[in-house]
Amino acid sequence: MKKLLAMMLMLSAMLAFTACGGDDKDEPNNQFVGKWYAHAKSGSGQWVLDIEDNNAVKYYTADDNGQITGDIRNGSYSINGNKIAFSGVEYYWSSLYKWEFDRGTLDGDYLTILYDGGADANGHGSIVFQKK
Q1: What DSSP letter does each residue of 1-63 carry, written as one string?
Q2: Other CB atoms within 10 A of residue 103 CB
């Protein structure tokens, strides 16, 4: 009987100190998640990179009030430390120009994205986005 009572006390002590998983906050599991903004290189408006927690990413242009002004481009991403790699994130400047996001590096609230199809001699360029 003493053994049963001792085991019941031990079991109740263990249950009393067990944490409940329901008190966890719903926070993104990576620092890339959120909306990132960059001023458009020509004219007014901004570029928006919306990185979601489910490895999905959306890219679109918006006016200064945040209203979407162009097509929404969908893709995916993977992360490794402060590096991000994109797949399928393309933007067509016109029928002549196509940018495809390749990879990026996070530095605080700034995300520098390298893309193919840019203006330099190697066909690459970069855009610095800021998280707001």
Answers
A1: -HHHHHHHHHHHHHHHTPPPGGG-----SSTT-EEEEEE-SSSS-EEEEEE-TTSEEEEEEE-
A2: 15
User: Using one digit for the tens of pLDDT, what is the confidence trace for 24-62?
Assistant: 444 445 899 999 999 876 667 898 999 999 999 999 989
Can you read off the two tokens belonging to residue 8? 């019941």
Decide: 103 and 32 in contact? Cβ < 8 Å: no
pTM for the full predicted model? 0.69
For residues 77 and 85, give the distance between their C-alpha atoms in angstroms, rounded to a whole number. 5
DSSP code of residue 95: S
CB 18 within 8 A of CB 80: no
Question: Residue 61 has which token pair?
Answer: 């242009």
Hey, what are 25's tokens? 């906050």
